[in-house]
Amino acid sequence: MWTPHHPDGYDRHPLHQGERIWPETNCYVDLWIEALHARGLEPRAMLGFTVTQDFEGDQFTFFKVPLEDLETLYGLRVQELAIYDSVEAHVAEQLRRSPDGGLVLVEVDGFHLPDTRGTSYGTTHVKTTVGIVRIDAGAGTMDYFHNAGFYRLDGADYQGVVAAAAGPLFPYVEFVKPGGKAQEGGALVAASLDLLRRHLARRPAGNPVTAYRAAFPEHLDRLLSRPMEYFHLYAFNLLRQLGANFELLGAYIRWLDGPVDAVEACQSIAEGAKAMQFQLARTVARRKVPDLTESFDRLERGYDTVMGSLARRYG
Q1: Residue 284 neighbours by CB under 8 Å, 6+ apart
Q2: CB of 43 closer than 8 Å to CB of 15
Q3: What are the pLDDT digits (tens) for 228-256?
Q4: How far apart are the C-alpha atoms of 184 and 96, rounded to whole Å?
Q5: What is the pTM of this model?
Q6: 71 has which bridge partners?
Q7: What is the pLDDT of residues 13-72, one digit of tens each?
Q8: 76-80/173-178 β-pairing
Q9: What distance in Å separates the CA atoms of residue 13 and residue 42, rounded to the nearest whole number?
Q10: Residue 293's CB: how many other CB atoms inside 10 A?
Q11: String of DSSP letters for the chain
């Protein structure tokens, strides 16, 4: 089963507990961390793909676990679900068909999700992905994974999500099917290491922080000419994706009992990206050009240390 828990008694994975630099990463990865945890699986084993993050010119890669990695490690097949009737009907059918409890991933409007109170709930229309494990159209309730937790939706919020998903364009939906046995123990570690070696071979040819540094003057011009709302979107897609990616990579290396210098460098990148986010927030508020030389130096050194150490150990 995906979860035996009522949302009120749900116990989050350690990656979402305690002191975290980035308590949430992005909706897709956070969802999978909790969904795998609820199934009794170890989500840290999937995190080797984070070594492939790159600077994409206007953002850092929105890092998402490759679907083939989920099948290799956990025996789970993820496929797109075609929507031609109501989203409710399709979700209910897939959950009914799954022999051990299903999981359907649906893009919804965060405006209607109470767990986003303080960010988008009731204020901003924003696309986000939830993982639905139970739905009752008659009662108007839905149990779902989102970000770092497990929640229940009902009442007007449920109706708002359903109405938004009704069109004019159907949302993107995926469903999860058990496709084989999950790896365990030493076999899980070995399979994870094999995936890490493949991902290391696909890592960026150069330092993506260096590429970001070269593009930053143009980014700064845009930041200084836009309102604070633009900054929040910018920070999410650049500094949060960079910092959260490397905080998770550090957790993965610790799980492997890997190189200590790589773990420390991941921590430095995560902390450095958060510090830069604060610096840029002040910059936009005061309209004053900052000196980020030391900040970029720290991030570049951290990246080179992480990749060099991992390549020597596992490449």
Answers
A1: 223, 224, 226, 228, 231
A2: yes
A3: 999 999 999 999 999 999 999 999 999 99
A4: 27
A5: 0.94
A6: none
A7: 999 988 899 988 898 999 999 999 999 999 999 999 999 999 999 999 999 999 999 999
A8: antiparallel
A9: 9
A10: 9
A11: ------GGG----GGGSSS-SSS---HHHHHHHHHHHHTT--GGGGGGGGGG--B-SSSB------HHHHHHHH-EEEEE---SS-HHHHHHHHHHH-TT--EEEEEEEGGG-GGGTTTTTTT---EEEEEEEEEETTTTEEEEEETTEEEEEEHHHHHHHHHHHTSSSPPPEEEEEE-SPPP-HHHHHHHHHHHHHHHHHTS-SS-HHHHHHHHHHHHHHHHHHS-HHHHHHHHIIIIIHHHHHHHHHHHHHHHTT--HHHHHHHHHHHHHHHHHHHHHHHHHHHT-----HHHHHHHHHHHHHHHHHHHHHH-
Helix 208-225 / helix 260-286 crossing angle, nearest 10 deg: 20
What are residue 105's DSSP bridge partners? 131, 174
